[in-house]
Automatic annotation (TrEMBL):
Biological source species: Microbulbifer donghaiensis
Protein name: Globin domain-containing protein
Domain Globin: 1-132
Family recorded in the similarity comment: Belongs to the globin family.
InterPro entries named in the record: Globin, Globin-like_sf, Globin/Proto, Mb-like_M
């Protein structure tokens, strides 16, 4: 992953992340992708969850820019079988929902921007998923 990818991703996220609707649309898609995923959030305060996810995605982006692993390791623990019990296969739905929402909201989205996102955040997603 080159610095160029993380710059593209940082700018793409900057065009999206100040709009609350981005996170509303993300969770509508993500929960719409599976009844099991929807069930995980029945008791969740979604306004707060949107705020937490805004930071969580930023952690993935910062990881791509060389930040230490500690924040992602903590997410790995909270999402593991000892925590929310988030099954590894659900991370694909999460990434698909994120990319579809970026495509909807980022006016400069392109195949290049999509590839940059995939390359930049996959290692961080795998770190969280593999803590299962
Ligand atoms: C909570 C980020 C993937 C379900 C959280 C929190 C963050 C976060 C920042 C709040 C902090 C915490 O409780 O540890 C992420 C990131 C993901 C990801 C960056 C992608 C790598 C997933 C997936 C699922 C999921 C795939 C479900 C299929 C949940 C649930 C909570 C949560 C159920 C707790 C909600 C509550 O407090 O009621 N996530 N998450 N997450 N996440 Fe994730």
């Amino acid at each position: 992953m080159g610095t160029a990818d993380s710059d593209i991703v940082f700018q793409s996220y900057g065009r999206c992340c100040n709009n609350e609707q981005f996170f509303v649309d993300f969770y509508d898609r993500f929960m719409g992708s599976s009844d099991e995923v929807r069930a995980l959030f029945v008791d969740t305060d979604m306004k707060q969850q949107r705020h937490l996810l805004r930071n969580g995605i930023m952690q993935l982006v910062m990881h791509a820019r060389g930040m230490p692993d500690s924040k992602l390791r903590a997410l790995g623990q909270s999402h593991s079988r000892n925590g929310y019990n988030i099954r590894p296969e659900w991370y694909r739905l999460w990434l698909d929902a994120l990319l579809d929402t970026l495509r909807q909201h980022d006016g400069e989205f392109s195949a290049e921007v999509e590839s940059a996102w995939r390359r930049a955040i996959l290692p961080g997603i795998e770190l969280i998923r593999d803590a299962y």
